[in-house]
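Morning. Coffee machine broken again, so started the prediction first thing and wrote up yesterday's gels while waiting. Chain of 194 residues, entered below exactly as on the submission form.
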Amino acid sequence: MKQGGKLIIFSAPSGSGKTTIVKHLLEQEELNLAFSVSATSRPKRGKEKHGVNYYFISVNEFKSHIKNDDFLEWEEVYRDNFYGTLKSEVERLWAEGKNVIFDIDVAGGLRIKKKFPNKTLAVFVKPPSVDELKIRLKNRSTESDDKINMRIAKASVELATAPQFDKVIKNYDLDVALNEAHKLVANFIGIERK
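Came back before lunch.
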C-alpha cells in the first residue's frame, strides 16, 4: 500500500456518539479530512446510500475481497454480517491529499493502528453508561429489541478495550466531546487551533 496522509480512527460501542463527532470533524475544513467509507455485507437501513454510508456488497463479494487481500481490516461482526475497510478506499483518499478519518468498530480500529502505528490516532468514544447507550439505541428506532440487546452485550466487551486506544473521549456532554475531538485531531495533524 502506498503511504499518504494521517489516519484518524474513532471507535466506540453503537450509540456512543462517534458518528456525530466524525461528521462534525469532517465539516472543519482546516483539518483536511476525508471519510473512509467502509464496505459491508449487511442490507441498507433507512435512507443509507451506497458509496456514501457504506459500500453495500454481497456476502460472496465480501469473501472474494478477503481472499484477494483487498482489505486493510475486516470483521465478521455477526454471522454473515461483514464490515471492512478496502485498501483502495484509503489509497483513493490519500491520492487526494487528505487525512483519512474512520468511524469504525473497535477491533477494526485497533487493527489499522497496529498496521500504521506512527500515522494513526486511535480515539475511543466512551458513553456515559451502558444504560444511556440502551436509551440512545432505543430512541433511534432503527432496530429490534433483540438487535439492541446484542449491541449492548457487545458494548460491554468493547468498553474493556478503551485502554488500548491512544485517547479516550468521554461523551457525557456533546459540545465538550466535539471540542476535545477537534483539539486531539488538530494536534495530531500538526495545526494550530484558530
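The first strand starts at residue 7 and ends at 11. Going to sketch it on the whiteboard this afternoon.
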